[in-house]
Amino acid sequence: MSATSHFATPKEKEERFREYTLAELIPKNTTIFVDLINLTINLLEEVPGGRPRLIEQQRFTHSEFPVVLELFENFPYHSPLADLLSAFGGHSVEYYRKEILRANKQHNIDGLLRPLRNCISRFRQRLYPLGIDVRCFIETGYVLMPDEDRLLR
Questions:
Q1: Half-sphere exposure of 4 (CA within 13 A, CB side)
Q2: In which residue ranges of the chain is pLDDT below 50?
Q3: Distance between CA atoms of 68 and 116, rounded to whole angstroms?
Q4: Dist CA 41 CA 91 (whole Å)
Q5: For residue 11, what pLDDT is reported?
Q6: DSSP strand E in 60-153: where?
């Protein structure tokens, strides 16, 4: 058994967490807190005079997580298909712009987008308890929207 440390280095600690307020998407007095190492998204509620309270936590796969983060980073605007494909597939945005043009010319855009659509379909249900939905703009991209019907209260 190797003697590797499971503690984060100072640089990893700086890059481990991100915080998103996502106004107009999640309820007031709540924050999305993302753990980049454990691939979790946490919905925290601010408690007056106390520590934040965890309302909901969801874990994502290694292929889903970059796509979710891309959507969060672009909120309140849509995330273009090339940006999402880049987050999902690992190539540059420019590469996927060219692939989208090529696929459109060959009438095979569905083949290019199918893995991304499947990925979003899988993680969409894990965003519902956070009060978030993902909506598609046909041939354009995806955007985060509030899902007030499913938000835990």
A1: 4
A2: 1-10, 151-153
A3: 11
A4: 25
A5: 53
A6: 79-80, 132-137, 141-146
